[in-house]
Design a protein that fits this description.
CATH architecture of chain A: 3-Layer(aba) Sandwich
Strand content of chain A: 25-35%
Structural class of chain B: alpha/beta
Largest interface: A-B, 29 and 24 residues
Structural class of chain A: alpha/beta
Helix content of chain B: 10-25%
Largest sheet of chain B: 10 strands, mixed
CATH superfamily of chain A: P-loop containing nucleotide triphosphate hydrolases
Strand order of the largest sheet of chain A: 6-9-10-3-11-12
Order of helices and strands of chain A: EEEHEEHEEHHEHEHEEEH
Oligomer: heterodimer
CATH topology of chain A: Rossmann fold
Number of domains of chain B: 1
Number of domains of chain A: 1
Largest sheet of chain A: 6 strands, mixed
Radius of gyration of chain A: 18 Å
Shape of chain B: globular
Helix content of chain A: 25-40%
Chain lengths: 251, 476
Amino acid sequence: MADLEIINLHASIGDKEILKGVNLEVNKGEVHALMGPNGSGKSTLSSVIMGHPDYEVTEGDIRYMGESVLEMDPEERAVAGMFLCFQYPVAIPGVSISSFLKKAMDARHPEGKAPAAPFLKEMRENMAYLEMDPAFANRGLNEGFSGGEKKRMEILQMMMYKPGMAIMDETDSGLDIDALRIVSKGVNKLKGPDLGLLIITHYERILTYIHPDHLHILMDGRVVMSGGPELVKQLEDKGYDWVRDQAAATV
Amino acid sequence: MPDFETDSNLVQDYKYGFVTDIEQETLPKGLNEDIVRAISAKKEEPEWMCEWRLKAYRRWLKMKEPTWAYLDYPQIDYQDIHYYAAPKVQDPDAEMDPELAATFEKLGIPLNEREALAGVAMDVVFDSVSVGTTHQEMLEEQGIIFCSISEAIKKHPELVKQYLGTVVPPGDNFFAALNSAVFTDGSFCFIPKGVRCPVELSTYFRINAADTGQFERTLIICEDEAYCSYLEGCTAPSRDTNQLHAAVVEIVALNNAEVKYSTVQNWYAGDAEGKGGIYNFVTKRGHCRGVNSKISWTQVEVGAAITWKYPSCVLEGDGSSGEFYSVAFTNNKMQADTGTKMIHVGKNTTSTIVSKGISAGESANNYRGLVQVMEGATGARNHSACDSLLIGRDCSANTFPYIESDDSGAVIAHEATTSTISEEQLFYLKSRGISEEDAASMVVRGFCKDVFKQLPLEFSVEAVKLLEIKLEGSIG
């Protein structure tokens, strides 16, 4: 039994079925990459795993640490150790990063209140590691942030929350090479036996910084191919049409 | 969309809704010249004050209640209201009535000097009378007068005569005329030339008696180079009949003087069906008479069934500036029609307006503002930002900004937005482990930040808490 199990997952938005039976297993300590062409359902999968209310799961299950999370609210999934690194983090004007992070840390603390001094110390250390200006902590959350700043903010949260399972949705999209380097630095620091990573991406670029152990290819709402790191190279050379042909041949 | 529902439990969270059982002295219901004279006599006022009231009363008789506001309420029967109610004083030298002391303890307002809040001098008005003012001696040493208006009329008649009614004349509007005729208590603050008042001056208004109107009158004067920060708070018992609060506040700022006036208004708002609650009809105006003077209004309005209130600034002194920062929260069937008027008269005057309206339930929340630039007011500048946040589907928000400029060089900028708490914001915060209620209150708090940061620190913390209590149950 894997730490994160996605079993024959079907999900729809309105009348439109987007996930049509996804199967995927990720264990802590592993790094998985999920690739696929536009419209294959990658972002939907990440939203459904975290419990976005727009999507309805019509069949199948998502289990984390052996328990189905389908009946859990997003905040319960988060506190249980699941994390979604958003592709487009939304702005919450007027809410400072430090007060937001404090609230999120409070939610994880057994007594409902994370002690302030160690929290601030940890926040400052992590910000320094991600090469963020300390004054950043007083800014409104994602308010007027550049693409790179938003993604660093996501990684900062991941470093603070220390999730057991993180889904990174197109974290590399829209990043320049410096931002990509810093984001990868953060992720690589977190990699280890206590974290499972599912990296959803469009490009192979991020995979040269964060080396996955497994690669899956999603097409039309299903995982059609899985393999080791060598598959990245094959995909780069041959493209999604080759995957499509291969998938057709195996059905 | 998440399913937003208004929770009728919300009003039960109004922890100030209790009634103090205390022996009262009231005048009979109704309004006529005898009642006006009786109020004046109760307050042992000089003849000129009584005449001033009677003039206002005769003026009021000829006036009509305004109907232009976006408010819907049944006709008020002005003959069915007590215009004076006061706790009976047994012995004027005795300690405060223990019932009364207990009431204020329950409200979190310590009145004896021993427990008085360190940085705040407080005047407390219970129904129609002031029941105590703290820190008076310390203030007197600096030449600051801070007392109830009744006391000021007796002890400082020359100052009251000089300033009363000069910012809001008795005939200004229907409610101001009514107030001028029957006002009972409120605060008087006088900061002499060159003095910066070292503490917050604060008045706490409490309505207790049933079927009684409260007619607060406050007058604040800052002479040249003087400064003060003033804060008022208000609560009332939960009753299923409506009660009237018609206040007048006047502020005068002379050369280089600065007055910051903050309100946290938490009158009883009625129940979920709109039964009961305070009708809050208030005229507040500041007059920047001197050069480079500054008046700043900050209001957090979370209570009252009906709010009709436009704290304004007349910017007469050259280089003077006016500010208005407002958070108005309405829920259930509450109605608010509130905003400001900035009248630019002098040269190089500036005004800033930041209004944040939050509506939930079936409430209506309207911003109404006027920016007027008179002829000759060269170099006038105004910036207005009016934002509305809607919670749920049954509430409404409107913005009525009026701009009248007789000076072609005036720079006037107005921005307005209307938004809802978006599902994406809630999902983002929830996915971080934050509960839906905390997430929504976080979004609202962020929305109000520009206003809250204007409040004195300790009151800002209180205001945030108060808003959170009010939001509880309105989301989820």
